[in-house]
Amino acid sequence: MAEEIGQPILEELTQELEQAHQEILRLKGYTQATGLVSSATTANKVVKLRGIAISEGTHNGKFYPWEELSKDSFVESFIGKPVVVDHKEGLPSEVGLVKEARKDPERRAILVDLEIYDEARGKQALYLMENDRPVGLSVQVWEKVSHEDGREVARDLELQHLSLTMDPADKEARIVAKLSQCGEIEEGEMSEETKEEIKALMVDDFEKLASEVKDDEVLLASRVPEGELAEYKYPYYRYPKYGQPAGRARPGGPPAGYEALEPRLADLEKRVTALEEAVKKLSSKSEEKQAEAETSAPAEELKSETQPAEEAKAEQEEMSRKDEATERDKALEELSNLHPADLIFLEQIARRRESL
Question: Could you give the 3-state DSSP secondary structure of residue 170?
Fold first, then answer.
């Protein structure tokens, strides 16, 4: 019974733990985008990349229509969200953020500019691109799925995060360009010195991403041919309107309530620690109960084997007692049928035996 109650609690705690980690990722990306945190944004260390986040089409069994992708609310949800590298075991590692996003009506796709502030990961991506080995992107979104015309359609989209991957659903999907520090597409190849420096990095670790992409992620399904990169000059339209609906400027200054972000992050991290401890304890108790059940099973079997023998012995003793009572009753009945003179004679014999 305890195990039946404990399992739902364990699942609930695990789910809450995952949600807390997602919220931490979201807040960290937001603080980076708004300039509230600047620990990893040194100009010379950040690698700027441009790519396609998602295009209209069917991805992982769900159709993503252009009317949903092109909503301002969805495009705006990209700004400041984390760029991560997913791991099969454990939570994703944050390596950058989405700096800008815009709609491309011609290709019915969402284009993004990324800042990879994990220098090693950024250089790995550049190395792979220089050697004609495409680096893909995948997006994980919150969505509502409806059934329309015999297929699943994703609506009311909001980005959770972008992931770097070596194995997108569409093999044509990729990061399409490296941007300079001022945001322009860079021409020419890297120097030999830079290439040697990048080769020293653990590129193989990056390639392992092919087996680490989550099944429930939406993957890229389009790319921009290299000859057409000149169309994507930076910025797409004048800041601060970038990423906002036409005619509506991005509000200036720090966002409202930003002072509470750092305490909220600290509280979330404490909550994550407490949840991890609770999950660990509950898992340990579940394992102990399972071990106890396995240990007690042979004892129960032994008890079930010895029980019939004990019951048989008790039954035999009960029958013996009944036989003795029956014999005593018979003797009393026979004595009651004797003549009084015979009874006196038997009594005298009994006294003589006692005196001997």
Answer: coil
47-55 and 57-59: which strand pairing?
unpaired
Q: How far apart are CA 221 and CA 98, in angstroms?
A: 19
How crowded is the C-beta side of 141, counted as CA atoms within 13 Å?
27
Q: How many CB atoms lie within 10 A of CB 90?
A: 8
Is there a contact between 280 and 272 (Cβ–Cβ < 8 Å)?
Answer: no
Residue 117 neighbours by CB distance under 10 Å: 21
b (16+ CB within 10 A) / e for 41-73: eeeeebbbbbbbbbbbbebeeebbeeebbbbee
User: How far are the Cα atoms of 32, 243, 275 from residue 80, in angstroms, in the given order?
Assistant: 7, 11, 27
Residue 148's pLDDT band (boundaries 50, 70, 90)? very high
The answer, yes or no, to whether residue 228 has pLDDT greater than 50, is no
CA atoms within 13 A on the CB side of 321: 6
- pLDDT tens per residue, range 69-121: 999 999 999 999 988 876 555 566 788 889 999 898 988 888 888 888 877 77
CA distances from 222 to 35, 58, 146, 235 (A): 31, 12, 24, 21
